[in-house]
Specification:
heterodimer; A: mainly beta; 7-stranded mixed β-sheet; 4-stranded antiparallel β-sheet; about 55% strand; globular; B: mainly beta
């Protein structure tokens, strides 16, 4: 059974930093592109970032330069380092496994709240 | 960026009803479209991909159709567990993937 378990969410002040982690199991992690998607309160789903199997990284324009996605295939783990957080980044962040271009498996989500 | 517009944004229906949700793309996306269901506090669930392919394990009352710029998700006979929010997603501009704004399906 595929499992994706996020951790590292919490309350952070504006301008602060947070690192999300995702522990993957039940599939060959190194074979798949991985993503972070967020659910913005009252605004729906928004793709945030992706890391390909070869290590190429991609970002939503509004987070580029502030967020860094990475993966550790030896530990079956995905990460999202977030800096310069603003209220607009408040969301539930999902770790997502992509299969053939579509988002087949999602974690349960990690809540990130940016507030003073 | 490719924009996806769903209609309606809110939909009230009853158990047993047939409902249709529409997703319109700002440019041709061929059949590179998926539909997801999300319940409050839960992870989104893939229902349909490639515009019309039913994901394994998804009940056959769900169906998808369309290509180019107009797509539909149909639920043939609503069940209590179907009251949720539905999102379309385009992947043709991978990795700059975008979602529709969502359609909230509520019990009438």
């Amino acid at each position: 059974e595929v499992q994706l378990v996020e951790s590292g969410g919490g309350l952070v002040q504006p301008g602060g930093s947070l690192r999300l982690s995702c522990a993957a199991s039940g599939f060959t992690f190194s074979n798949d592109d991985m993503h972070w998607v967020r659910l913005l309160p009252g605004r729906g789903l928004e793709w945030v970032s992706a890391v390909a199997t070869a290590g190429d990284t991609y970002y939503l324009a509004s987070v580029k330069g502030r967020f860094t996605i990475s993966r550790d295939d030896a530990k079956n783990s995905l990460f999202l380092q977030m800096h310069g957080l603003t209220a607009g980044d408040t969301a539930v962040y999902f770790c997502v496994r992509e299969v053939a271009g579509y988002f087949h498996h999602w974690g349960q989500g990690a809540l990130v709240t940016v507030a003073s | 960026d490719i924009q996806l517009t769903q209609s309606p944004s809110f939909l009230s229906a009853s158990v047993g009803d047939r409902v249709t949700i529409t997703c319109r793309a700002s440019q041709d996306i061929d059949s590179y479209l998926a539909w997801y269901q999300q319940n409050p506090g839960k992870a989104p669930k893939l229902l349909i991909y490639g515009a019309s392919t039913l994901q394994s394990g998804v009940p056959s009352r769900f169906s998808g159709s369309g290509s180019g710029t107009e797509f539909t998700l149909t639920i043939s006979s609503l069940q209590p567990e179907d009251f949720a929010t539905y999102y379309c997603q385009q992947v043709i501009s991978y990795p700059s993937i975008t979602f529709g704004q969502g359609t909230r399906l509520e019990f009438k």
